[in-house]
Design goal:
The chain has about 325 residues and is mostly helical. Helices cover about 70% and strands about 0% of the residues. It is globular, with a radius of gyration of 26 Å.
């Protein structure tokens, strides 16, 4: 009986160990193939000895990213980061206020508004695209612009459109951020607000001096999610400001399948290679993706400990 139990324990250990290793390999496989391809000289791509390790190390694919994708302008990444940071700030500020109002302020229709927030998150954003596009194409506020200027305003392909989406709660997954803040403020003790009111603080001072600072774990979590999603967004940026300097949109446009021949031809001319195979297109795309991910990896490296600490605190408080 003892031998049977040990055998079953050994079999279960081997089974779950194999399962975990298989899942890890499935997750890491794209990364394991991405790095050798990106750091292999374009002339050596496709050789059997260049699958897992570069046979000839080269960074000409990253040079191509700088010259073609970034058009020789390194500030494109800085502009994308600045855009993501500004959207992140707006989303955190607006979502926190909305979440606090839905959690702590009793007003008529509060449950209905919260239902609409959840409904907005569940509805595919593609279904709202036509309405949003037409509203920004013929932008007006209660007819005031048409009354004063004699015509409405076209906000399509202007960066202000993306900021208006964030201000009014329709930016990338913003309804989710409102829900997260609401759930956090629901869990905060009412005694904090009561003590603040006794000390003479009004509604807004209580929020900005006490409630909002105490939401630091949620602010950091929402801020990181907002920044990452805004930096990598190619949906709203592509439709509402298609000519903007957004790195993700530029990569998406550059490496469409229709550009395969053009990209390979550019690589042949710039790096004086007689031929380039189909793997060159993929290698250049992977190098662009790696370049795109560098700022996110740097940010994660510096804030990972703070994120874990705040999540732990949030769990203890909750």
């Amino acid at each position: 009986m003892t031998i049977s139990k040990k055998a079953m324990k050994l079999i279960s250990t081997v089974f779950f160990g194999t399962l975990v290793i298989s899942i890890c390999f499935a997750i890491l496989y794209p990364v394991l193939t991405l790095l050798p391809m990106a750091f292999t000289d374009l002339r050596e791509l496709g050789r059997p000895n260049s699958i897992w390790l570069p046979s000839v190390f080269g960074v000409n694919s990253f040079e191509f990213v700088f010259r073609s994708v970034m058009r020789g302008d390194a500030t494109i990444m800085l502009k994308s980061l600045a855009y993501a940071a500004s959207i992140c700030f707006i989303q955190v500020f607006m979502s926190a206020m909305a979440g606090y109002a839905l959690a702590r302020v009793n007003f008529t229709g509060r449950n209905l508004i919260f239902f609409l927030v959840i409904f907005t998150f569940l509805v595919p954003r593609q279904s709202l695209l036509i309405t949003q596009y037409l509203n920004f194409k013929h932008f007006d506020v209660f007819g005031l612009f048409h009354l004063i200027l004699g015509h409405d305003i076209d906000l399509i392909n202007k960066p202000v459109t993306l900021y208006l989406l964030a201000i009014f709660g329709f930016s990338v997954n913003q309804s989710l951020f409102v829900f997260i803040f609401r759930q956090f403020f629901l869990g905060m003790p009412k005694e904090l607000e009561e003590a603040s009111l006794i000390d003479g603080a009004g509604f807004y001072r209580t929020y900005f001096k006490i409630m909002f600072p105490n939401a630091l774990p949620t602010i950091l979590t929402v801020g990181i999610l907002s920044f990452v999603w805004a930096y990598g967004d190619i949906y709203y940026t592509n439709y509402f400001n298609t000519d903007g300097p957004y790195f993700g949109v530029i990569i998406d446009k550059t490496f469409k399948d229709a550009n395969n021949w053009y990209i390979n031809n550019q690589a042949r001319q710039w790096f004086d290679t007689a031929t380039t195979n189909n793997l060159a297109f993929e290698a250049l795309k992977q190098s662009s993706i790696l370049t795109f991910l560098v700022p996110l990896l740097i940010i994660y490296f510096f804030v990972q400990r703070k994120i874990i600490e705040n999540l732990d605190r949030a769990g203890i408080v909750g």
